[in-house]
Amino acid sequence: MSVSGARVLLHALLLGAAAITLFPLLWMLSVSFMAGGEASAFPPPLLPAHGTLANYRQLFGQQNIGRYLTNSLSLAAMTTLLSLLLNSLAGYAFAKLRFRAREPLLRVLLAALVIPSQVAMLPLFLMMKWLGLVNTYAAVVVPAMAGIFGVFLVRQYALTIPDELLEAARIDGASELRIFTSIVLPALRPILVTLGVFTFLGSWNDFMWPLIVLTDQGLYTLPIALATLSREHVQDNELMMAGAVLTVLPVLALFLSLQRYYIRGILMGSVKG
Amino acid sequence: MRVGYAGWAFAAPALLIITVFFFVPVLSALIVSLTDFDLYALADIRNLRFVGLDNYRQLLHAPQFWRAVANTGYFVAVGVPLSLAASLASALLVNSRLAYFSAFFRTAFFAPVVTTLVAVAVVWRYLLHTRYGLINYALAHVGIHPIDWLGDPHWALPAIILFAVWKNFGYNMVIFMAALHSIPVDLYEAARLDGASRWQELGRITLPMLRPTLLLVSILTVAGYFQLFAEPYVMTQGGPLQSTVSVLYFMYEEGFKWWNLGSASAVAFLLFLMILAVTALQVRLTRDAQAR
């Protein structure tokens, strides 16, 4: 095959694949602007006849979706901030500070990465119940405040900080906390952005655990609210699509603006150890 | 000395959280799985009895549990190879020297990965609708009669697999793309001097060089696919006729619908063992293939 023939075929395949991946998302957006019942036709319309915001108005008005949006946003923000703090402290310590039992601890943590989180879920629920934390934000935020993956991600990056830099600061009499805040944190900035995006997306998209511990409707996150809504309003496709848009759009925007950092996280996570 | 204390102090908060909210629950799960923890024990812990391996024994004799195992096995056995093939093919296409706009295509293929699973599952449920769904509409053009994707026990799981592959393949594509970049260019140049075709380059250089990545990616993907839950929860509620009940869905119902927490913990451990066993098998097969 000639080079130009190969090039045409290659781009035909690429465009076809991109159409398949993007179509459901674009169509979701289009249907969300359709009038009620408009999408329940055969053949299904691709674009709304007269674009309307009625579905969004109904979601914010009757369905109280603003509340769920706020819940999702504050839970994800709290989780991200707290876990950045704890994971960066621990990741730096495991990389650069010698302390007793550091190496064995590291090995235990690494080995524990193979345990699926669902194994812990039932006793964790009992623990939350016993602590009186079921149906509170704390039940979602507190267990997510630190994670093995996050500690390792920061550690891998912190290994590249030159020891001389830290030693020089120690000789100048800087406290360890001071060294952390004025030298280590700025050096870790790129990986903290990566971890922050990961944590925020993970928290926003999380489903099973919030479904279990947040049974009070006022505390629902967007995915839980959407799942509940979709069980009740099976026929209201246009309304559901508007709900899906509101759930997906914030994380998609965050990803598009910080794509480089997110992809680095995947690559570092896949070459663990 | 001072540094030693600082190290502990810095690591302690994260280690405390991980211990209390991960290690302790995992060990407790093992203990709970050996008891008859149920609604009565939840009301009053004195009703709790130690039952040894009874939960495990009962599960291994329960047809519903085996149904969930079989469904999950099907999802993994078909979904993982499909997903890896899509990831590898798209990585090769996007990475091609001839491709324009590769950054755009990479982002387009990756976009479904970051979307919220519940939201896009709702979208797909609609795409798969028997009467109004665009998928059946497209199939009608090639003469295929409408399929009741999510209402037919034979089609519900395949439909969920298609959805999962669409949602996930971009993740591994990114890993494959990085691995492709790290293959030395002179290998290809030498092959071309020897007159190798593109297909020979793919079979003799690219795929062998990707083998370590392939092993790693398949281990991670298998573990992920074993944890199927939200897709059936949103799209089919485990139906029709239990055809989409996964092991985790079974655990969720056992634990949080019927409050059989002892039995549900046993399910969680059996799932963990299944993942470990399949991972060991993958490592073993790869090693054998390399030895040959």
The parts of chain B where pLDDT drops under 50 for at least 5 residues are none
Q: Give me the secondary-structure category of chain B.
A: mainly alpha
The main pleated sheet of chain A reads as: none
Distance between the termini of chain A: 44 Å
What is the CATH topology of chain A? MetI-like fold
Number of domain units of chain B: 1
Radius of gyration of chain B: 24 Å
Any guess at the CATH architecture of chain B? Orthogonal Bundle
Main sheet characteristics of chain B? none
Total count of helical runs of at least 4 residues of chain A: 13
| Number of helices, counting only DSSP H or I runs of 4 residues or more of chain B | 13
Describe the overall structure.
The complex is a heterodimer of chains A (273) and B (292). In chain A, 72% of the residues lie in helices and 0% in strands. Chain A has 273 residues and is mainly alpha-helical. Chain A has one domain: Orthogonal Bundle (MetI-like fold), CATH 1.10.3720. Chain B is an all-alpha fold and 292 residues long. Chain B has one domain: MetI-like fold, CATH 1.10.3720.10. Chain B contains 13 helices and no strands. In chain B, α4 packs antiparallel against α5, α4 crosses α12 and α10 runs antiparallel to α13. The longest helix of chain B has 33 residues. Chain B is globular and about 80 Å long. Classes of the chains: A mainly alpha (273), B mainly alpha (292). The interface between A and B is large, with 95 and 89 residues.
Name its key features.
heterodimer, A: 273 residues, mainly alpha, MetI-like fold, globular, B: 292 residues
Briefly summarize what is shown.
The complex is a heterodimer of chains A (273) and B (292). Chain A is mostly helical.
